[in-house]
Amino acid sequence: MAAAVLAPAVRESVAGRGRPVRITADTVLRTAGEMPRSVLFLLSGTMVATAGAPAGAEVWPEQWTGPAIVDKAAVLDGRPPATGLMTLTTVSGLLLPSAAFLELLEEHPAVRRHVLTRLARDTMAARRRLVQFATLPAAARVALWLTEQNPESPTHQVPDHPTEHVAGRAAQHVPNHPPQHAADQPAQQFRDHLSGRKPDHPTGRKPDRPTERSPHHPIAWRGSQEQLARVLGLSRVTVNRALARLTRAGAVTVTPHGIVIADPAALAACAEA
């Protein structure tokens, strides 16, 4: 949806009715079975849906990285969800009460179309994951998932935000850690994002351009291998073995900063193996 679809009055309405929040990592926002009281217009950071598994394990069947609208399906369903909600990193955004979100969908067809489109994409993605779980070996599943995290990949998921087609690129520059002294910073970021305006880079300067000596390799995953195992519904040992195989193939590099895609073509080939 283009930013122009939302009239200025609507932008201000959403920003005004939402409550700006900044939440630290590993915070449980609600538990499984607890009714959601709001949706989160996520500006920066990553959140996950959580579910318990046998033997005390935990899986993360869904994740959101800003910009995104978090928990919209649970609010629309109207029943106690089977999953909880937790921050994986520090996040910032606006909490919009469930009733206000439903009113927004009723009053503005453009917003409603966006949400329905995104829900359809999520449904189809869930079907693909089910097929992959049933038909692919673990190493291929890990390779395919990492491939889909590459922004340059044709299978990369577009941001879940009403301004994704216009301001999706700009949103990548929203600071992950807004200044704590600016209490209204998330609300202003939200207004800027809806209008398609680029915020200043958090460091006050542009990021360094990749050079021939340090070519750009996208980081597909910044979390731990244990966390990746939860996302994929695998054991940590299985993920560790899969990454070792992908590393030997030259497809990825495991670094202290995360899993780096070293060779997209090799990774794609491993996903088809």
Could you characterize what this model shows?
The chain is of the alpha+beta class. The protein contains 10 helices and 11 strands. The strands form 3 sheets. The chain has a 4-stranded antiparallel sheet with strand order 1-8-3-6. Strands 2-7-4-5 form a 4-stranded antiparallel sheet. The N terminus is likely disordered.
Question: In a few lines, what is going on in this structure?
Answer:
The protein has helices spanning 8-17, 72-77, 98-107, 109-135, 138-149, 164-171, 185-194, 225-232, 236-248, 264-271, and strands at 19-23, 28-30, 38-44, 46-52, 58-65, 68-70, 84-87, 91-97, 219-221, 252-255, 258-261.
What is the secondary structure topology, with strand pairs?
Elements: H1 8-17, E1 19-23, E2 28-30, E3 38-44, E4 46-52, E5 58-65, E6 68-70, H2 72-77, E7 84-87, E8 91-97, H3 98-107, H4 109-135, H5 138-149, H6 164-171, H7 185-194, E9 219-221, H8 225-232, H9 236-248, E10 252-255, E11 258-261, H10 264-271
Antiparallel strand pairs: 1-8, 2-7, 3-6, 3-8, 4-5, 4-7, 9-11, 10-11
Helix pairs in contact: 1-7, 3-4, 5-9, 5-10, 8-9
CATH homology superfamily name: Jelly Rolls
Number of strands: 11
The tally of structural domains comes to: 1
Structural class category = alpha+beta
CATH architecture: Sandwich
What gross morphology would you assign? Answer: globular
**Strand order, largest beta sheet:** 1-8-3-6
Helix percent band: 40-55%
Low-confidence stretches: 1-5, 163-184, 199-214
Radius of gyration (Å): 19 Å
- Summed over residues and divided by their number, the pLDDT gives a mean of 78
CATH topology: the name is Jelly Rolls
Strand percentage: 15-25%
Major sheet: 4 strands, antiparallel
Q: Give the topology string: H per helix, E per strand.
A: HEEEEEEHEEHHHHHEHHEEH
